[in-house]
Each structure stands twice: as structure tokens, then as C-alpha cells.
Amino acid sequence: MKYGYFDDAAREYVITTPKTPLPWINYLGNKEFFSLISNTCGGYTFYKDAKLLRLTRYRYNNVPYDNNGKYFYIKDVTDAANTVVWNPGWQPVKTKLDSYECRHGLGYSKFTSSKNDVEAKLLTFVPMNDNCEISKLTITNNKNTAAKLSLFSYVEWCLWNADDDMKNFQRNLSTGEVEVVDGGSVIFHKTEYRERRNHYAIYGVNTKVDGFDTSRDAFLGAYNGPDSPDVVAEGKATNSVASGWSPIASQQINLELAPGESKTFIFTLGYIENPEDDKWEAPSVVNKKPAFKMLDSYKTEEAVDKALKELCDYWDNLLGIYHISSKNEKVDRMVNIWNQYQCMVTFNMSRSASYYESGIGRGMGFRDSCQDLLGFVHLIPDRARQRIIDIASTQFQDGSAYHQYQPLTKKGNSDIGSGFNDDPLWLIAGTSAYVRETGDLSILKEIVPFDNDMSVAKTLMEHLKCSLNFTITHKGPHGLPLIGRADWNDCLNLNCFSEHPGESFQTFGPSEGPVAESVFIAGMFVKYGEEYAQLAELLGDDAEAKRARDEVKKVYDAVLDAGWDGEWFVRAYDAYSNKVGSKECEEGQIYIEPQGFCVLAGIGVKEGLAAKALKSVEERLDTKYGVMILQPAYTKYHLELGEVSSYPPGYKENAGIFCHNNPWVSIAETVLGHGNRAFEIYKKTCPAYIEDISDVHCTEPYVYSQMVAGRDAKFFGQGKNSWLTGTAAWTFVNISQYILGVYPTHNGLSINPCVPEDFGDFTITRKYRDAIYTIDVKTNGSQSGVKKLTVNGKEIEGTVIPYEAGIKEYKVEVIM
Question: Where is the Glycosyl hydrolase 94 catalytic domain (predicted)?
Fold first, then answer.
């Protein structure tokens, strides 16, 4: 069952009913100012950091779903005996609408709805170069008679620190402070401004208003929710001025429309920081000049339309960097639009702010952000470069790192701490991807602090060396890397240990007591150790490259010796040196991670083991909705495994379908030249291919989810944790670099597709460094293998097109 459809020409997903299985959201903003908006106008706004600079409130785990946002109430009093109140996005009043449509586009959302022959069109977006959200609302009277209406806006302010805002009531219920200007057409949110924090928020409309409210209790009524505000019911604002308690911003606009007449109103929600050298008259005095300058910038429809065009042009340029034209409509849709769009959002947000992550508990992830780079670096390399520096700056001198950092301060999050032993290697992965994409070796010579302390700063290449050395110096009894607190699988906590069954467990660090090992990290080390060696060679350090490859060989051999279980790769060894993910185990006999990552790293390919491992995946882990993370599911709690078995069977790490690591298996299949199987795996989690089961899948049909419930779950196939997931980057890497086969190397683009037999011919346009490549591929029904490669009319050997500075266009013909 579907709840909408793709409009590829407009690059929009069109939602045709507000009653989607879950709220289906969009992200507004590309730089520092962001909003989340749902298909019923729920959501919230923040500047840079969803925890520390939250502008508007949102209530998570709410009943009913998604019941706080930025709302417009339309009260139709044309017929005094039959007044009706409704919202363009249906919520929160939930009046049955005569028509409804939500279009989520790239950085904007549009709503068109109607009730009793009154139509509302709402456009909401964040402009490219301003810290504000624009909402353009057009109301049209389609009645045969004049329409008499009242419009009420509504925004609830958050008292900046979202964590403190929801807990520290003894203080916060006395700090709410606002200022009303121009009769209420502009409302200033000043809370905490008197502490010289030098920032405030505004909510303004480009017209005179007939009333306003800034007190939530006055607007809603002390015991009402947003679905039944007192002010809207009475039809008259109270002109309340909040002092303490909960501040809001609401304006009332009364209007009469002749038959066929329309009126447009522009609402601006903005964030302002005063210049550092501002001279203040008093700590609580707001400098209003920047606010009015911002409001004046968007007071006309022409200005708003121009800003929207700038946003659309921005995406036109970005999405032109990698573009495919094929007979496969769904592949084109995902590659050209939605997959790259999601990569941008995950780069901006990491895992911090969604409808599943509150923006409070998590900041930017070390591992997460490094992986996000893989799918983003081709879009805006300069931002990727800065992100690498920011991430590396949270690393410790021994190579380990804070697992997360706050985007506002760029300081490591001590609440989460470190100990995830895969983290260091992801820094090599992200840096390698950047250098391969850009050819910019200067980043490796950039001086970067450890733990943000410039007194112990070294070059980025030295940071990467610390990453490599951390794994080299943290191995267990089988010669495999220590897992530490966890590796990629945060719930596989194998250093949970008890001397006697039934006793409480202790958690051992990487140098204490019994230690657990990770075959997955071993696979990472083999892949990224080689990529580190290539970087060393580029810097002329052949000795370091040889040292790295010697260490890679040791781990490679250790995997073959201790990490092979006969038909698949072992997942790990626990703190007792017992195998995890082995046929010797009663439950959890096979895990997806080492099968995918070891094979994509090349382990076991020449020995004939890789094909066996992938066959085991197909036979034991595959389902119609994707590849499960492990089997059989854990049916009882295993203390020695940590959190992984705390989930019910089929959910999350306990045999759920992690969309994030399905691409690893698909990539592994391309390593073996299996185009049919690689694409089969790709399709099972690809939104465009599963749109028809939206009633089962539940999450947005235009973006990837982190997890889909596995075969053992009650709700098999149900998605969770959409948008912010490494699935986005890894899937784009899989489809663009391995299946379609356009892979950036240090020396040039490699063209080596691995597609299904019936994929057909295709053309890719790819910007690489300062040149445009037009790549025409004739597949000839082949799954893999390049028979002939012609570049600008000349046939070349191999699959890598040598990069030559100065050549701006490459015409490439590939015959498989």
C-alpha cells in the first residue's frame, strides 16, 4: 500500500494523506540553521546544535504522534452558525480536510489543502544564506461568496538548551522572557539574553496583526493542548506577554476575501547573534537591527521566490556532480535525487537530530561522521575537509578518540567517552576517501590537535599513524584486534565478564583482565591499513607504507587462522576466548559484519573462502526484506555478550535487518563479480523498490532506515530509525562506486561496473576533481568485466582512466 508517489521531474515525494503510518519528515537547511518538518507540520528548529541552541520545543514519545510543531490555524467564520477550524497540515486540530497534499522536496516542503472552498498553500524552507526559516502561506477563497477568516500562527519556544529545557523546571519556569514589537507582528524570544549569551530568536510576519499571544497558557488554556486552543475557539487573541512559564509566539490576522481572491503572508522564524563588539546599553537590551534586517529581506513574495530559486539552483548544481541515465527508473531516482539528498542530511546531522534521536543525547559521531563522508565527499569537498579536521581534533594521542563530539563546541563528549576500538580506523577511511576524490595531499600536512589541545598537535598524517598503531598495539591472544567497549556493533559488549555465573558483571578496558577480539575490526584493518599505506606512498614514505602492509599481512593471516569457521567468518572472541558467531554457538552462529567486510577487504578471495562466506549469508541470513544481522536470534540473555541479546528476537542488533551493513555484503558480491546477487541485495532495502509496502515498512518511502525488523520479529519488515543512518552513505558508495563501478582512485577514475545481466546500457556523468566525465557503458548482458575502455577516442589498458590536470572533459566508452 502506498500513501503517495514520487514526482521525479519536481524532485519531490508527494504525500496524499496526512495519515501516514508514522510521521514522514523532511530536513530544511544546509549550513548552520536547520528545521525538521513532518507531513503534518510537526517538528522543531535549531541553530548549529540541536542540544545547545534549540529554538522551538518538540515532545518526543508523544501521544498522539507528532503533536508539537509550527502551526497555522484557519478559522472560517463565514457562516457564523457553522464555524470550522482547520490546519493546512491537518494536525493538530485534525479537522477532516476536503483535500490534502504534502510535497517534500530538497530542502523545502509544500502543503496544499482545502476546507469548505477555502484553500491554503504553505511553503516552508530555510534560505541558503540566512539563519531563518521562511513560511509563505497563501489563502484563497474559492467560494461563490465572500469568506470571513481568522488566521492564527503558533510556535512554542524552547529555552535554548533542550536537555535543560525538559528537566530543570524549578529554574526554567521563571526565565521565559519575550518582547513584542509592532503590535505583535514581531515577537522576540529573549530568554537567557540577559546572561550576555548574545543571541535571541524572532518570529515575525510581514503584515500588521489583529492580536498576539506570547503565553502558552493564555493561548491554549492551562489544560488544553494545541488541538483545542482557547484563543482560536474564542476567535480573539489576548495580547498576553509571557513572564516566566512557557513563552510562545502567535499572531492573529483577520481577513475577508472576495470570491477568487488570495492573500499571502510571510512568516519568518530566525536566529540572531549580535556582533562581538556590540556596545550594550544593558544586559537585557536586544539589538534589534539584525532582526529587522533579516525580516526585511523576506517581506515580499518576490524575495521569498528568489530565495527558493537559489536553494533549488544549489541542488541542481550538487546533483549534477554524479548523475545516471538508465532504463532503471528506480535506480535513477535514488542515485540522482534521494540517496544523495539523504547523504547531505546525514553529513549535516550525523545521528543527532531526528524523530528517533532527540538531539540531546548524541552529537556528531566519530565513527558515524567518518562514514558519512564516504557518501558526501564528492558533493562539497571543502566541507568534508573541515569535518575531517574536526573529527581528528577529538582524537587522543594513543589513537583512540571520543566516540562523539558536540557540533557547537567541537569538543569531545565525555559523557559517552571512548573505548570503541573501530573508531580510529574510520578516520583513515574518511581521509582516504577525501584524498582520492580531490587529490589534495595538503590535508595530510595540516596541523591538528589531540583532544583539542594545540600544545600536543601533530599533522593529520601523524593522527592516521596513531590510528593504525592503536590497532597494531591492541591485539588479543589470537592476533586479532581487541574489540574494547564495542566495535561497529555498539551492542556487542564482549568484555562484560563475571568470575562466576549469576554474579554481577564487570567491564574490562582494553588493557585489563580478559579481553575480547573482533574479526570485524580485523577486516577493517586489512582494508584501511592498505589505504593508509597508499597515503604514505603519496607522501614519499615508502618505509612507512611497507611497515603498514607488513602489519596488514599479520592480521590477514590471523583472520584466516582464527577467524574462519569452516563456512563463514567468525564474528569475534569474547572475554573468555570463546567464539562468537560460530557453528559452535547455540545461538548467534553467523553474523553479517565479518562476511561483508572481510570479503570487501579482499580476505579469503584467492583462498576460495569468500564465496563460501557469501553463500552462507544467502542461505542463513537473507530474507525478502534484506539480510539479517545474525542468526539464530538470541532467545535468552547472554551476559558475556552484553547488550546484543537484550533486544527481543528480530529487533535491532538481535537478528534485525540492519540496512547499514547490507551494502557491505552487496559490495562483497561485486568483489567476486556477482552482479545479479549484488543488485538483488541492493533492491531489498532500497526505498524506491519497497514503496509499495509502505504500510508494512512504515517509515518514509524516500529515504533509508537504519533497521528493519527481522524474520523473528512480530512485525517482520517494519522499519525504524529513518534518515540518520550510515545506510545512506554506504548505499551510495555501493551503487555508485561498485555496482555502477565509477570508483575514485589516487591516480584517476576506475570504471569497472558489476551489474545484473538485465540492467541494460547506461550513461553516467561524473565530476571528478576539475573535470567532467561522460561515461557510456554497453553492458552486453554481462555482470562484470571490462572488455574495452576508450577515453577521448583512444583505447586504454586496464580500468583506471589516468587523471591529467588541464583536461576538462573526458568522453568515456566502456564495453563489458
Answer: 314-741
